[in-house]
Amino acid sequence: MLKWAEKITLDLMKTIRILLLLFLFAFPVLMIAHGEAETPLGWQLVGEGIEYQQFHLVSPVPVNVFVARMARSNPNVTIESSIAQGRLSGGTETVSNMALRYDNALNFWGEPTIPVTPTWGSTNDVIVAINGFYFNNKTDPLGVPWSGQVHSSWYAKRFTDLEASSGFIWKMDRSTFIGGCISHPADKQFVYNFANKTYTYFTDVNRTRADTELILYTPQFDRDTNTDNSGTEVLVEMLAPTDISTFGNMPYGIVRRIRVNQGSTPIPFDHVVLSGQGVKAQELSTNLHIGDIVGIAQKVVDCTPVNDWTNAYAGVGGHWRFLINGVIYPFLEDGQANVHDPRTAIAYNTDYIFFIVADGRDTNFSEGMTVKEMAEFAKYTLGATDGIMQDGGGSSTMVINGEVVNNTFCNNVYCASKVYLPLVMNSSNTLTATNQPAKPFEPEVEWDAEAQILQRLVANGMLMVVVQPMQKSTEPYDQGDPVTTLGTINVYTGPGTNYAVLTSFMGNGTIIQPLNDLGGVSAKDQYWWKVDFGAIEGWVPEALIIPQLKLRSTIHDLKTR
Predict the structure, then answer these.
(1) CB count, 10 Å around CB of 331?
(2) Do 242 and 251 touch, CB atoms closer than 8 A?
(3) H/E element holding 6?
(4) pTM exceeds cut of 0.85
(5) How far apart are CA 36 and CA 26, in angstroms?
(6) Which of 366, 389, 453, 473 is exposed most, by the fewest CB atoms within 10 A?
């Protein structure tokens, strides 16, 4: 009887061991200091030089963490920032839509070599996208980022003076840093005219112009300057973006138009507008003339002397700089930093840039992270030396090759309340199309019924991009060649449907070769040409125009058949 019982016990223990092994193989768990992590797949290659991994931490609370890392040494990849609706004047958009907006769009990264030779013409293959920094979501204008932004080498929005941590910056030489408190010396923000050796100082960048101010507007502001007719506006065609620079390396341009009391001026993708009012309007009219060659300088002074902002390529603001040179700063005195919440962060070391998104507000799968826990994860699990938080909460989103990979639903509707928990079928983001929430969403979130994804509308973000080499059309258009449109077509501010529409037009025009020689460049799966239609100049797809002589020949052939 005893032997029979022992056999049953041994068989039961063997069965339990087999089941346990099967469970462990199905759900392997790797215990990691400062957070226990489940890592079933390891790093997966999602694009050249870019890898992705999902972690599941089980201590002190369960949390799903999504990480993308980009190899800093790979010359074919870069970091870029994204702008909702392509305008900093006040636009909101989902992270997915921003990734789509900038995918296959022009950048200024240039040839994928080290050192980089910057030039317009390369395009983005967007592999990873995350949300950016805080923005106006309750005040007018909605969607304006709270802090600064550098986009494709344009200094498009100033970082706020004297911020403790101004933001993450990626440079043309592939170096990176997190800025400290910064300032913009008034005597280092100017337009220099090489013809008459005059300096014209401007007040700020891409914001509403006030009395006696001179504002520099770049293409990232909006389709046009949104100004009234009380000032003078000077349109300058640039050879390169107006980046953070000093007199010795400032970008050059040519004055193309001077508009006095004519209202808002359209901003082509490779132009800037100098908009002055009062005494500044008079100063513009005195110092600048059509055809003048000018340089534009913008200097940033950082309270951390080692931070050199010159030639910054991409960057957004940040909050809670939780990791500095390997030292963790937990912000224990800040109540919001100690809440388990969805989080978005950017971190780095000498080898990689890391984009990190942690899901929260779902007690069954992922409760979120504190700032201290994010710092420990970045340091001990990823090996990062520096890191800074972005906007979190419902904004926390990661997109890989066009697909949302984290649970944006629970981040927004608080699955911890149990009300919405049955809608979540698994711990990633899959929902049933019929089980949409009973109550309507707030205006700042968007439900994509086709993709079954809920995303918050945000103002900006950051991208990991594989750089695609420039391609140009073989169509032999030259400066001044007459063309006509094939029906009514949209005319854009730049070569790509990601740029703003200036107008719709049908009729004749002539080809313009811009200073950057981008006539016929490929972007957004089309070839593009700049055309002068008389009342308006802009970019149109090659497939929608035809040489006038060819059109006349076609019409003649039809008539004689």
Answers:
(1) 19
(2) yes
(3) helix 2-26
(4) yes
(5) 17
(6) 473
The residues that bridge with 139 in the sheet, in sequence order, are none
SS3 assignment, position 102: helix
386: exposed, middle or buried (C-beta count within 10 Å: 0-12, 13-18, 19+)? buried
269, two tokens:
């993708």
Supply 345's token pair. Answer: 């962060």
Q: Which CATH number fits domain 482-560: 2.60.40.1220, 2.30.30.40, 3.30.360.10, 3.40.630.10?
A: 2.30.30.40
Domain extent listing, the chain: 2-30, 44-176+310-466, 186-299, 482-560
Query: 């700032």: which residue's tokens?
Result: 371
Coil, strand or helix: which one is 270? coil
Q: Are strands 271-277 and 327-328 parallel, antiparallel or unpaired?
A: unpaired
Q: 250-276, pLDDT tens digit by residue? A: 999 999 999 999 999 999 999 999 999
What are the strands, taking DSSP E only, across 182-290? 182-183, 189-193, 198-201, 204-205, 214-217, 231-238, 252-260, 271-277
- Say if CB 96 and CB 433 are below 8 A apart: no
> What does DSSP assign to residue 322?
E
The owner of tokens 């002074």 is: 301
Residue 479 pLDDT > 90: yes
Q: Which of 548, 550, 554 is nearest to 509 (CA)?
A: 548
Listed in sequence order, the residues at least 6 apart from 78 whose beta carbon sits closer than 8 Å to its beta carbon are 107, 109, 170, 313, 314, 465, 467
First to last CA, the chain: 107
Burial of 9 (0-12, 13-18, 19+ CB in 10 A): exposed
Reported as a single tens digit per residue, the pLDDT across 151-180 is 999 999 999 876 678 999 999 999 999 999
As beta bridge partners, residue 312 has 171
Give the Cβ contact number of residue 2 at 10 Å.
Answer: 6
d(CA 376, CA 386): 11
Q: How far apart are CA 220 and CA 403, in angstroms?
A: 26
Q: How confident is the model at residue 11 (pLDDT cuts 50, 70, 90)?
A: very low
Token duo for residue 456: 């918050």
In sequence order, which ranges of 407-542 are alpha helices (DSSP H)?
A: 408-413
Q: Are strands 154-157 and 149-151 parallel, antiparallel or unpaired?
A: antiparallel
Kindly report the average pLDDT of the chain as a whole number: 87
Q: What are the contacts of 307-310 at 24+ separation with CB within 8 A?
A: 307/169, 307/177, 307/179, 307/180, 309/169, 309/179, 309/182, 309/244, 310/243, 310/244, 310/245, 310/246, 310/249
DSSP 3-state of 462:
strand
pLDDT for residue 425 is more than 90: no
Radius of gyration from C-alpha coordinates of the chain? 27
| Mean pLDDT, residues 88-94 taken together | 95
